Amino acid sequence: MKRLAWFVLAGLLLSSLVLGGCSGGGDKVRIATDATWPPFEFVNEQTKEIEGFDIDLMKAIAEEADLDIEFINVAWDPLLAGMANCQYDAAISAMSITEDRKEKMLFSDPYFFAGQIITVHIDNTDITSKHDLSGKVVGAQIGTAGSFEVEKIGGATLRTYDDIGLVQGAVADTFEFQRV
After folding, report:
1. Is residue 76 domain-shared with residue 129, that is, in the same domain?
2. Same domain? 7 vs 92
3. Do the beta carbons of residue 118 and residue 178 sit within 8 Å?
4. Pick from 104, 129, 147: which residue ends a domain?
5. pLDDT in tens, 159-172
6. Fewest CB atoms within 10 A around its CB: which of 2, 59, 78, 121?
């Protein structure tokens, strides 16, 4: 029962955001996503469909609120710009809520609290915490919580990339996630 109440509330929040915000009155609600963030959203290589936790969540909300939705897969920067310019009715894309974003967009209540991790080459033993990044070049996807965190590290140089896969590829051809 608690779960159903949450979906109803989320559906009402989404409906008020969509219907009161950028909706152009069309039949379909256009939902932007940057499908490069598994397990939240990604393109299934076999079916070519967008899948993931966020996608399942939005489908459940849409079903509960009786909304006809269409997912639009778009890169991160155009997603944010498109939301600001009412190109999309809503977005779901592993997005962190920041003060700057709250000035431009409405958000539902958070449904996931994410932290940041540092990814290093498997042979790297010099970096064990964010404090070890001073004097280093640190890659992050442009406009993400990760890039904002790097900017706070004194002496670290931020190098931005268009998507997270490019960041990971820049670390090395073979990398391993190492939580530090």
Report:
1. no
2. yes
3. yes
4. 104
5. 988 877 787 777 65
6. 2
Do 40 and 89 lie in one domain? The reply is yes
The 10s digit of each residue's pLDDT in 74-125 is 998 899 889 989 999 999 998 888 888 888 889 999 988 878 888 888 888 9
Could you tell me where the DSSP H helices lie in the chain?
A: 2-20, 53-65, 76-84, 99-104, 145-151, 164-171
CB neighbourhood size of 73 (10 A): 15
- Give the structural domain span for 35: 2-104
In one-letter notation, the amino acid at residue 30 is R
Measured CA to CA, the distance from residue 110 to residue 74 in angstroms comes to 22
Would you state the structure tokens that stand for residue 135, as one six-digit string? 């004097």
Phi-psi category of residue 94: left, alpha or beta, with phi > 0 → left and psi -120 to 50 → alpha: left
pTM summary value: 0.64
CA distance 156 to 137: 6
**Cis peptide bond prior to 39, omega within 30° of 0:** yes
Length of the chain: 180
DSSP single-letter state for residue 100: H
